[in-house]
Amino acid sequence: MLRMAISFSSWKWQCFLCFVFLILSCHCKGQDSSLSPMKNKEKEAIYSVIQGFVGQWWNGSYLYPDPCGMTPIEGVSCELYDDGFWHVTAVNFAPIFDNCLMCNHDAQFPQQLFKLKHLKVLSLSGCFLSPIQNPVKLPISNWEKFSHSLESLTLRSNPGLIGTIPSGIGSLRRLQSLVLLENGLTGELPLRIGNLVKLRQLVLAGNYLVGEVPANYGRLSKLLIFDASRNNLSGVLPSTLGLLDSLLKLDLSSNMLEGELPRELGRIKNLTLLDISHNKLRGGLARTLKELVSLKHLVLSNNPIGGDLLGVTWQNFQSIEALDLCNTSLEGSVPESMSKMKRLRFLDISNNNLSGGLSRSLEKLPCLRALHVNGNNLRGRLEFSERFYMKMGMRFAAWNNANLCYIAKPRHRRPYGIKPCVQNITISEGVSTVEISEGNYKDSFVVASLGGSGCAFYGLWWVFTVNGVLNVFLWNMLF
């Protein structure tokens, strides 16, 4: 009887545990996010959005009855909110997302998109490809419906996406990243973008934008990247850009900007890249660069900046890795202080009006991998070592300097496009003197003792020439 009582008690205990497990299981299932519903209106909206990009052939109501739960749609992300419903938070249509749903050749920008009121991320790349066959205008209105949700807006590589940048984008108070890259957008930069105080990335490159950079963009105190390159922007740069304390990258290259770089840019202590190449900026280097000592990459090429290299304290630029001053109307000599930039990897001062010699101290730069000084008025001898020429190869460009030469040595590498230096050798015998000059490597005669002028022969040919002149000299002495 005791054994039966114990057995019965054990059975009751097991039943109790099973009951508890069942209750907990039911409770957990009630909280299972995969079973949470999605509002029909939002489901219909996301289906319409996808059809607008992919094409009417796509019917998601059969394939994806639960687009945010058990049957998710590629390129669409959702989150479960406190109201107990799924809401679409991200729409990504781009090859970089490895998405099997690709935009159709006649894709449109569906207005149903603005019904996704919880949308945080919108990214469309390579969706609108032809401005002739399928031009699509960027919607002007309804952006304020995303004012409390959208954090990232990326529209890139859409040459068929035309129209102006909507001023309504300025109402996206939570926006942190705005990338409108390589589209067909026109018009001016909207002033209201200056209201996006949470913005960290502003990329507007590769469009057809015109006008000036608005002064109120200086309010974007959290901005890390500002890239408006490859447009048709004009006018002078506002001094308020110096208020962008957090800025790391400023790229305004390939525009039509004029005037001088504002001194206030020197306040941006964290700036590591400044590219303003291919503009119409003037004002000299000393005023422009005085305080930008945190830079790693400085590209000022193809601007009529003028001035010289001597007014800049180059030894203060200990972080710089790439310095491009090609075609900037520079004059004067190349200062030896440029060899103090210990992290410098790339230096281009080509196609200017620089004169004087080129110091061998540049060879001591430990990281230097490319040196371009071609197209100047440099003169004198290059004193670099054979090891330097071997290391640099064609990355050492010094051609188109008419009065620059190098010391020719047998079996040593010759810097491309540079002539050997002339060296005079005097041979005396009694009252007679014969001057023998190293001939030009293009010539085949000794010209020093026969009239005219020449440059160095190369290697064994020079030895042969000297011996020939000596033989002629001795023959005349004997007969």
Ordered list of secondary-structure elements with their pairings:
Elements: H1 2-31, H2 40-54, H3 60-63, E1 76-80, E2 86-93, E3 121-125, E4 136-137, E5 152-164, E6 177-188, E7 201-203, E8 208-211, E9 225-227, E10 232-235, E11 249-251, E12 256-260, E13 273-275, E14 280-282, H4 285-289, E15 297-299, E16 322-324, E17 331-332, E18 346-348, E19 353-356, E20 370-372, E21 377-382, H5 386-392, E22 396-397, E23 403-406, E24 419-420, E25 424-429, E26 432-437, H6 460-478
Parallel strand pairs: 2-3, 3-5, 4-5, 5-6, 6-7, 6-8, 7-9, 8-10, 9-11, 10-12, 11-13, 12-14, 13-15, 15-16, 16-18, 17-19, 18-20, 19-21, 20-22, 21-23, 23-24
Antiparallel strand pairs: 1-2, 25-26
Compact description:
This protein is an alpha/beta fold and 479 residues long. It is 17% helix and 24% strand. It starts with a helix and ends with a helix.
What tags apply to this protein structure?
single chain; 479 residues; alpha/beta; 19-stranded mixed sheet; 26 strands; disordered N terminus; disordered C terminus
